[in-house]
């Protein structure tokens, strides 16, 4: 049996640099190219989408991402992997729904109906509230083409202002607004979609508009085909990667991941630590080493969050400074495919960074230049990550 191809860490870092549009000469002209290259960009924190794209544009800025999201609709916000909100290419949305979102939304609906029933609101009450929300959005379409905020919907639909008791009798018992739960579910299902926010591009107060007809629940064969397609698209950008990496990224079960890898004929390779990785069958050629490069990437950036096993680009000794208690990576400083520090924006607008290892004078000059460029992109905007890390807090203290 022939030996499996081997991908050392330098090869993986070279692929990361080029395929994630971070190496010199790889920057994109349009936001759609960036999102397509990354497959999906975390959108839980709105700033992540804009800063992740800006870091990979030949002319860094936020205007082109606004165009793609709100004018052209070529990039969409959708719940997907691990029930998380992502910005994805519009052409990926059907496969994302069939492979991942439909199952998560069905589970969310089951939980919602159970929690609402426990507070005396049966399925008929919930259905009536849903119809009232969608009717309000439809009625407002002419006068408010950009949609309605959650607050405006609550004014139009009084049921949304009611509350339920959650976790009664447990240590985490709390009160939840009906609107918070119901709007999230309708957003997951796609019955309503987020549009331009109130305020600037860092705002999370989005307006809502009616979505397209919600597709039928995918049949098992449709789900399997969509998972194979999504796995192939992810491997093209993130391979070589392990089964664990794909299980973590997608939130699928191990059996589903193995079936998807087999369906896209993924080839086994050996990684530097001796573990088994996977690439697409026509993607075994070595990647030339790029020229030296630096980058300042935002909290939750797809490159930092793209793999479960990260030792090949993130030193374990640096994690306590750069990762929060839930495992979210904060703003990171990169040099040649490795995380070497973190950055933060101070109240006066300055972009400050701290290097956790000495990368040498060339790297320090390059990082300083990237910080200055990011300061220009941010202009008068102030960005505080939703998930804060020890280093980011220290830099802004």
UniProtKB/TrEMBL annotation:
Keywords carried by this UniProt record: DNA-binding
The protein's name in its UniProt record: Winged helix DNA-binding domain-containing protein
Keyword DNA-binding: yes
InterPro entries for this protein: AlkZ-like
UniProt cross-references to Pfam families, sorted A to Z: AlkZ-like
Molecular function GO labels: DNA binding
Source organism: Kitasatospora phosalacinea
